[in-house]
Design brief:
single chain; globular
């Protein structure tokens, strides 16, 4: 009986290893394409986009990209991760050189379908971040005294999304301070 169980485990392990070997490259390629697509979505048109650079955002290791036009950096794309209601919420946040949020894109989330998942599809929620000037407005939900309207029945997700954007804006401030 133990020999049979060992053989079954070995066969299953070999199958699992084979599937991993076959799918590892396509998965990595798809993730890379998703990142490139989100960087293009959150930055203005035109200009040259840099390679990924390491950065700490909200206390976590992350990455950012710059967009240059004529040798001058005009915008930054920062990958920002926070914990939402259902788990990790990962955004790509575009911030112009003057500190305004250009656009945001959700890379991944585990939020509740029909409620928190609206953070990826509800234009009335995501569009309020376009052109958001964190220097003159408060980047937190209205329930907490800020200027961001939360998704109905999804305050935790809205807070997490807003925190991810705030962390990205603060990271850009640190990047600009170090240039």
């Amino acid at each position: 009986m133990s020999v049979c169980l060992t053989l079954v485990c070995l066969v299953c392990s070999a199958l699992l290893a084979g599937v991993y070997a076959i799918t590892a490259d396509p998965i990595a390629k798809a993730e890379s394409e998703a990142i490139k697509s989100s960087v293009a979505k959150v930055l203005p048109q035109g200009g040259e986009i840099s390679e990924s650079r390491p950065l700490e955002v909200g206390g976590q290791a992350s990455e950012y990209y710059t967009m240059s036009d004529g040798g001058n950096v005009v915008a930054y794309a920062v990958k920002s991760s926070v914990v939402g209601f259902g788990g990790p919420l990962v955004l790509m946040v575009g911030v112009t050189a003057d500190g305004q949020v250009f656009n945001t894109a959700v890379l991944s989330h585990n939020e509740t379908p029909g409620l928190g998942a609206k953070c990826a599809s509800d234009a009335s929620f995501t569009d309020q971040f376009k052109g958001f000037d964190a220097g003159s407005k408060s980047l937190s939900v209205k329930k907490d005294g800020g200027d961001v309207d939360a998704i109905t029945a999804s305050t935790i997700t809205s807070r997490a999304y807003t925190l991810a954007v705030r962390n990205a804006v603060e990271a850009v401030g640190r990047i600009k301070g170090g240039e």
